[in-house]
Design goal:
Layout: H1 2-131, H2 133-144, H3 147-155
């Protein structure tokens, strides 16, 4: 029985040799015809993908740098505009203050001139009143007192 078993195992091993040879042939064929070209293609694809990713990262970095540069220029331009605006406001405020000072001075001069004119008119009116005091007193006397008293006094 052991001889028979060994005989069957020997026949089985002898019958499996062509299958083993075909399997090794298919394995080598698969390796050279399918696996290696597929790995080479995947490697190239990975390199191109990584290259594209690196290019995209570089483009993003360049765009960020450009954006920061534009923002810096924009901030600088805004600061320059603000500075010019402040200078212009200071200039306009100086002009306004000068105009206000000139208007005040002119108003003070007009007030002084008007005050002098009023004082001159008042002095003239006083001198006119003082010069006509006698005449005014006579008119008042005639208007208030009866005509006989005024005529009697005029006789005295």
């Amino acid at each position: 029985m052991i001889d028979q078993l060994l005989q069957q195992l020997g026949d089985l091993a002898l019958g499996s040799i062509p299958t083993i040879i075909i399997f090794v042939f298919l394995l080598i064929s698969y390796r050279y015809l399918l696996y290696l070209p597929l790995m080479r293609t995947l490697g190239e694809r990975r390199e191109r993908t990584l290259g594209a990713i690196e290019k995209a990262k570089a483009a993003i970095a360049a765009a960020d740098a450009k954006s920061q540069e534009y923002e810096a220029k924009l901030r600088s331009a805004r600061a320059d505009i603000f500075h010019r605006r402040e200078l212009r406001l200071q200039q306009l405020n100086g002009q306004r203050e000068a105009a206000i000072a000139a208007a005040r001075q002119a108003a003070h001069e007009r007030v002084a001139s008007a005050r002098a004119a009023i004082e001159a008119d008042a002095a003239e009116a006083r001198s006119h009143i003082e010069s006509s005091v006698g005449e005014l007193a006579g008119q008042i006397m005639r208007a208030v007192l009866p005509a006989e008293l005024t005529a009697a006094e005029g006789v005295h």
